[in-house]
Amino acid sequence: MAALFTGKILMANRERDEVETERELGRALENKVLLLYFGSGQCPRCRQFSPLLKDFFVRLTDEFYVERASQLVLVYVSRDETQQQQSAFLRTMPRRWLAVPFGDAFKRELELRFGVSEVPAVVVLKPNGEVIAGNAVEEIRRLGPACFRNWQEAAELVDRNFLLAEDFDDWTSRSITDPIRRLKYKLDKKTEAKNEERREEGEEAS
């Protein structure tokens, strides 16, 4: 996948860090399903879809919902009219998103390569760059996070059981509350399980 971005630069969302070296790109993109999100913070259709995509991504990668982040990476390809618009939009999106820098000619290359003429569009790619879905907007709307399993099978990903959700820690900051939030989630799940056992025991006794 990194071959698609050879010699290019990607930006880490809300960070000044650039992801451009072969090693960094390889680590960020290797063995993952890649989503290219062509959109704009000013487009009415994008404003309707972007919150769905945000929720989709968070439910697959955030420790509040999953023990281990799915092998998924998203690159935002902007059609915003100004850098300020792009930055304002990205501030409302997950920190783990990457983005093509504003004004980079590579954006047009990607649009032409994948035949993107209208936004929103989500191109889904295998790690080797082959297209799984030319535009998954409707699939994401219809199925939500469940469609990732289909993509994962199509991409023939190597399951990295030893990798935790800290996959991106070296180049994006994490909230200090994450460990507390994750612990609370686990405790809530245990409490829920105990309550369920008590209810079942009560039903059997009656």
TrEMBL record:
<dbReference type="GO" id="GO:0005739">
    <property type="term" value="C:mitochondrion"/>
</dbReference>
<dbReference type="Pfam" id="PF13905">
    <property type="entry name" value="Thioredoxin_8"/>
</dbReference>
<dbReference type="InterPro" id="IPR036249">
    <property type="entry name" value="Thioredoxin-like_sf"/>
</dbReference>
<feature type="domain" description="Thioredoxin">
    <location>
        <begin position="1"/>
        <end position="163"/>
    </location>
</feature>
<dbReference type="InterPro" id="IPR013766">
    <property type="entry name" value="Thioredoxin_domain"/>
</dbReference>
<dbReference type="InterPro" id="IPR029520">
    <property type="entry name" value="RdCVF"/>
</dbReference>
<protein>
    <submittedName>
        <fullName>NXNL1 protein</fullName>
    </submittedName>
</protein>
<dbReference type="InterPro" id="IPR012336">
    <property type="entry name" value="Thioredoxin-like_fold"/>
</dbReference>
<dbReference type="GO" id="GO:0045494">
    <property type="term" value="P:photoreceptor cell maintenance"/>
</dbReference>
